[in-house]
Amino acid sequence: MVDSSPLTPAVFHVLLALNDGPLHGYGVMKRVEADSGLGMGPGTVYGSLQRLEDSGWVRVGQEDERDPRRGRLFHLTDDGRAALAREAARITRLADLDGVRALAPGRGGA
Amino acid sequence: MSGSGESGGGREGSRTVRVSVALYRLALRRYPRRLRDAWGEEMVAAFRSLLEDETARRGWLGALGAWWRVAREMVGPTGRTGTEGGGDMGEKTGQGRRWLRGGVEDARFAWRSLRRDLRFTVLLVGVLGIGMALNVAVFSVVNAYLLRPLPYPAAERIVTVRPVTDLSWTAVDDVMERAVSWDLDVFTLVGGGEGPQMVRGSWVTPDFMDVYDVRAALGRTFRPDEAGAGGAPVAMISHRLWQDRFRGDPGVIGRSFEAFTSDRPDHAESFTVVGVLPRDFWYVNDFTEVFVPIRDERALYVGRLRADVPLETAEAVLTERARATTAGLPEDFRIRLTRVQDIHVAAVRPTLAVLQGAVLLVLLIASANAVVLLLIRSARREQELGVRRALGAPRGRLARQLGAEGMLLGLGAGIVGLATGAGILELARWGVPGMLGGSVPGGAEALHLDGTVALATAVVCGCMGVLFGGVPAGLLLARRTTAVLGSGTGRGGSDTRGRRRVRSVLVMAEVALSMALLAGAGLMVRSAVHLQTLDLGFDPTGVTRGTLGLRQSSYPDVDGRVAFFESVVQGVRGLPEVQAAGLASNTPFSGFVQAVPFESDEGREEPARAAEATAADVGDGYFHAMDIALLRGRGFTPADRVGAPPVVVVSASLAARLWPGVDPLGRRLRLMPFPGDRDGQPGDWHTVVGVVEDVTRDLRVPSDGQVYAPYRQQLGFWMTLVVRRRPGAGPVEAAVQGVVSELDAEVPFSGAAELEDLVGAARAPTRFTAWLLGGFASFALALSLIGLYGVVAYAARQLRRDVAIRMALGADRGSVTGYFLRQGLVVVAGGLAVGLAGGLLLGRALAGQLQGVAPDDPLVHGGVALGLLITAALAVWIPARGAGGVGPMDVLRE
Question: Would an 8 Å CB–CB cutoff place B57 in contact with chain A?
Answer without folding.
Answer: no
